[in-house]
Amino acid sequence: MMKKILAAAMMFLAAGPAMAQEWALSTVLGDMNIEALAVAPNGTAWAGQSNSIYRFDGSAWSVVTTVTGWADVEFFGAVAPANDRAYFSGCGYPPAGGSKASFPASIYLPIVLRQSGGANKSLSWWEVGLLQAPWEYSAHLYAAANGSGGYDVWAAGGGGGIHKSSNDGASWESHTSNVTGVGYFSGIAGSGPSDIWAAGADSARYYPCLYHWDGANWNLFTSNFSGSSPVVSVPTDGTPWYAFGGMGAEVGRWNGSWDSLTAIPNHWPKCLTSNPQTSEVWLGTENTSTHTGGIYHYDGVNWQPHTSLPGPVWSLDASYPGVVWAATTGAVYNLGWRPGRRDCRGDYTGDGSTDIAIFRQTNGLWAVRGYTRLYFGGSPDAIVPRDYSGDGSTNVAVFRQTNGLWAIRGYTRAYFGGSGDTAVPGDYRGDGSADIAIFRRNNGLWSIRGYTRSYFGDSSDVPVPGDYSGDGSSNVAIYRSSTGLWSIRGYTRYYFGGSSDVPVPGDYNGDGTWTPAIFRPANGLWTVKGITRAYFGISSDYPVTGDYRGDGSEIPAIYRGSNGLWAIRGYTRAYFGQQSDIPALPRPWWTE
After folding, report:
1. Is 370 left (phi over 0), alpha (psi -120 to 50) or beta?
2. How does DSSP classify residue 22?
3. Is the pLDDT of residue 15 over 70?
């Protein structure tokens, strides 16, 4: 059966519309439907099939847990609101002697608390809790930050109405125990804790309906459309899209009224998803004639076919910028995923790992060990290598303070900023490519070209932008060495380090979130907040932390200009460069 799935996948991807070749087969799991699919803010993908839950860490799929003791387990709902937790909802027969041993009772399986250390636990170890839900049958899930440091998880499906948990499934609150007018629910989505939309059918005619929670009350909106099994998705503009089965797949928007529908003949809607940054909407279907799958994309004007898959498209997730995930029978596909999509600094080859590389200011030489040599820029320039093109590899680039020139080799040139400004490029929009940006110390101005401006920090601060919130976009952030203050705009503040320390933040535990860290040249101390301490290097070394192993986590490393030594702690050593060279990695304080 696995060979048949692979062969069919290749045939459909090749035979689809013009853009179909962009879709890639990510994994083949089993022969069952994969209806539970979710993507975390850092791009980690989750899938539930049969009685097992799988996780894609950016390079490979692996089994996280398998439910034992229960019979005929299937998962139908999943959501991953944060990098350290995912939730799955499914059905199954409880173990012998269970309270509902003769009936397919629902189960709720939260996977929470990714361990970042602890006795005998690796960084990839997950604690699994199996809890029985208060409803029967399975449910679709939606989760939103609840404002107090946790997540509200909403479950809707079957005849069980709508339930909410704010404690990882330990207890549930029924939100629809006294509701009249709804026959069943078949989907749930939202744009935040006070904007929840559930799709279902009214109890009078079983016509599609929407049920909205505004933070205080539920409101029912019924339609005059004849159809069934509606699904819903809500971009951040708060205008929900819905789809249901009628004369084919019927899809439209609710904007205070039911708009005119777009019909996709011979297709039945299975799932609907949208991207919170771009509000792009995607629809997954089953062709009722061939029982193959279709994926459709709304281009802002019309719905367009995007690709065909060998089986019904049971689940879609487009929440991660620039990537769409799709699950069908036995396999998971993606559009736009690249190993280097995450912010792997100094990845010139695009293989997902940091490369050893130097810049020689005297003649503008860029040399990437084992890969290439070229000349670009020179002594008046600050190096600003990042992935500006969004293709998963680092671009050679310089910033010339004297006239504000940004030159990105083979890609673009622009004038932005000038004398006295520090270049602080980063992926501030979360779209997978770096933005041109400057920090102006004399007034604390942060200016991201074509995007936004803000004031944060002062003349004594070091800019340390990075993804501290784990949402896939760079945060405006500063380090104040006089007090050890780390301040991440709109997010949090820490005190960590002091006046003699060099800030070296990064993703040291591979969870997709940056952590404050310092290197103390006086004694070679590396301290990563809440994760580790180590002694590595001497006072004359450059700290060059990076993901040299390509496993998603950064490790302490140093470059010693006096002899060209690169030493990556616990991994490797190499000699590359000479006295006048600087590491060709994006560290603004090196070139100020």
Report:
1. left
2. G
3. no
**CA-angle at 123, arms to 122 and 124, nearest 5°:** 90
Asked whether the beta carbons of 325 and 39 are under 8 A apart, the reply is yes
CB atoms within 10 A of CB 263: 13
The pLDDT of residue 119:
41
SS3 state of residue 125: coil
Sign of dihedral through CA atoms 282, 84, 529, 549? negative
- The pTM assigned to this predicted structure is 0.61
Q: What is 529-572 written as a DSSP string?
A: TTTEEEE---TTPEE--B-TTSSS--B-EEEETTTTEEEETTTE
Q: Cα torsion at 537, 541, 542, 544 (round to 10°)?
A: -30
Considering the chain, what is the average pLDDT of its residues? Answer: 83
**Model confidence pLDDT, tens digit, residues 257-313:** 888 789 999 999 999 998 776 678 999 999 999 999 999 999 788 899 999 999 999
Highest mean pLDDT among 106-110, 148-152, 521-525: 521-525
What span, in angstroms and rounded, lies between the C-alpha atoms of 76 and 88? 8
d(CA 562, CA 540): 8
Residue 110 pLDDT level (bands cut at 50, 70, 90): very low
d(CA 122, CA 420): 45
pLDDT in tens, 518-528: 999 999 999 99
Measure the CA–CA gap between 445 and 428, rounded to whole angstroms: 15
| Coil, helix or strand at residue 428 | coil
Q: How many other C-beta atoms lie within 10 A of the C-beta of residue 105? A: 19
Q: Identify the burial level of 59 via C-beta atoms within 10 angstroms of its C-beta, where 0-12 means exposed, 13-18 middle and 19 or more buried.
A: exposed
| Token pair for 105 | 């009772």
E-strand stretches of 267-317? 267-274, 281-287, 293-298, 303-309, 315-317
